[in-house]
Amino acid sequence: MQLSKDDLLKCINQSVDGIMISDHRGVILYVNEQYIALTKLSKDIIGHNMQEYVEAKVVEQSTCLSAIKHNRVYTRIHHELNDVEIISVSKPVYNKKKEIEYVITNVRDISTYINIEKNLKQTDRKFGELFDAIKENKQELVVSSPEMINIMHLAQKVSKVDTSILLLGETGVGKDVFAEFIHKNSIRKGERFIALNCGAIPNELMESELFGYEAGSFTGGLKEGKQGILYHANKGTLFLDEIGDLPYHLQVKLLRVLEKRKYSPIGSVKEIPLNIRVIAATNKNIQEQIRNNKFREDLYYRLSVLTLLIPPLRKRQGDIIPLAVYFLKKYNSKYGVSKKFDTDTLIQLQRYHWPGNVRELKNIIEKMVILSQGDILDFQLAFAHEEITEEQLSLKSFLGKKEKEYLINMKKVYKTTREVAKAIGVDHSTVVRKYKKYGIS
Length: 441
What we know:
Blueprint: H1 5-13, E1 18-23, E2 28-31, H2 33-39, H3 50-55, H4 63-70, E3 74-79, E4 85-94, E5 100-109, H5 111-137, H6 146-159, E6 165-168, H7 175-184, E7 193-197, H8 203-211, E8 212-213, E9 226-227, H9 229-233, E10 237-241, H10 248-260, E11 262-263, E12 272-273, E13 277-282, H11 286-291, H12 297-303, E14 306-309, H13 320-335, H14 343-351, H15 357-371, H16 390-413, H17 417-424, H18 428-438
Parallel strand pairs: 6-13, 6-14, 7-10, 10-13
Antiparallel strand pairs: 1-2, 1-5, 3-4, 4-5, 8-9, 11-12
């Protein structure tokens, strides 16, 4: 089956690249819609010579005319007035006499690439000193997006008020990090910060872990008894993570503790005074749990005197690169290496949907640092043994094929990898790495 002319033009018109075809003099014969959208030229340019737009200073320099003049592929980055930066590549098409018959020009918006590189440089400078400070304080509160800066300021404010706080958000957004941040900015910062994951301890053991027990209280217990977490957290901060998983019968006892500021170990009638601050966190819909009689409404109101909602990473993209840089510095230091990001990896980090939030980003950066060969991190290695959706796979495959085709074509024009790097505007090491990746000899 062959494409008709109309179908071929229809497909070309849907290209993400702008495409322009001219004759051997530079007279424009065809443009697709994306070319007009990217260059901001008038729709009636067909039939005009590109030289007209150069002389009128509408176009600073034409790669099409340069390709004709120098009889070779010509590449240039254009800095447009509307803050859009595009890369333009013009390639001659020859007739049987090896004379230029047409010139095909591809243009692509590279603003995303440029902005990410600028963002990376700014982030690297900004977090150089911050990394040392965070490392010294043993906390990982890295924020850059307006949303998280506002939440951090609110966390600083509520940390000064010695009352219960409820942190809400998906798994992996950093609720534990915020809890410790609040503690370290509170009047209790010199006391203990103790975290208890209510979903990680079996229900039958939770009560003894939380309240402790007297000697001989039950079979299998320690002979001398055990002091519970409430005892060890006294005067400090108790962080109850995944509070939504706390057994219903213990919710009553916890509520009583918060109201009376006293508790009794299992098997004891003695009440022990308690002076703690409680920070609770959950990824569950507490209101729904209350409706389904799985969480006590009175305990909810007691815990949620102040509430902070931490958004998922996909809704605060301004934090992705700063967090990635921070984790890279952390794992470079841990493993004694000097791995780096390239633009491609940063773009993939920025575009990924992060279902596991900050925790997933942290794990992926560590995995890349460990598995990547050479100094440049390889994003694909982070998913080497994980399931990838058909849509993700097809997109990556398509982009990889196009990149390989482009590099093979550039190799035909230029003799060395250094010449290729100069022509397409990237580092020589990037071209060498891409050649190796795609098996281009």
